[in-house]
Amino acid sequence: MAYLEELGMKAVMPSFMAKGEKQLSTHDANTSRLVTKIRWVVESANARIKRWKFLDRILPTSQVPYIADYIRIVCSISNKYFPPLSTGNVDEDNAVACKIKYLATQINHLKEEVESKKLDSRKVLWKRPEELLDFPRLDEEELRNMTCGTYQLKLSPSYAEEHFNDGADIMVHRDDPYLLRVKIQSRHVSSKSYLLWIRYNETSVTGWYCKCRAGSRVVGVCGHIASVIWYLASGRHQESIHSVRDWGRYIDESSVIPEPVDASESEEEGVEE
Known about the structure:
Keywords: Metal-binding. Its cofactor is a divalent metal cation. This protein has nine helices and four strands; from the N terminus they run αααααααββββαα. By secondary structure, it is α+β, with helices and mostly antiparallel strands. Strands 1-2-3-4 form a four-stranded antiparallel β-sheet, sandwiched between helices. It is elongated.
């Protein structure tokens, strides 16, 4: 990091919790999201290079003088015959960048409300999510604007099917007419669950807070919040939730490559403990 800064670069890395902490601060969680959003550009380029088996392994020292040439050749072939890594609209991308840079300076007002009013210690009357009739419906674009990416939205159907269709591992409680408290089971630890809060009005979701590691951020949302909002605002209104891919066709026909997932939010894999 110090070396990069000496070269005049601004170097940032995802934040880590100090010993004894259970959650990143809003500032640290926001900063970490900025890093993971940017690093996907580098990771996707590296992933394309590593599709070549020779470059997807540790090479002997005898090959060191030739590695640069190999990479130039592979990159030239990729640039010529593979689709661009980014096919987005430049103006839209700039708008997203401006939005997340602005959000990174904001605080999580709902987190402050939960802590100041001690909402996590109040008595609750848990109900099934199907009883919520006033939660706003949101389309894919509105959900994507809220999550600041597509990674979580692509995972939400499978997460929703796992938790909501079979025995409903999610329960909701109203702390006030437009504030939901939700309890959701951890995907990785059967004995662990998370509490999260979602504030909304007749047309949109206006605030969120989860007690997981990255749940206080306002630059996008954590995976728990994304899945719950997707289900309440969209998924439950669909006739069925299609979540599981038929990976067998990729085994039978190796020339068919599954559509890559934008892992710009892949830090969520390490959120739950």
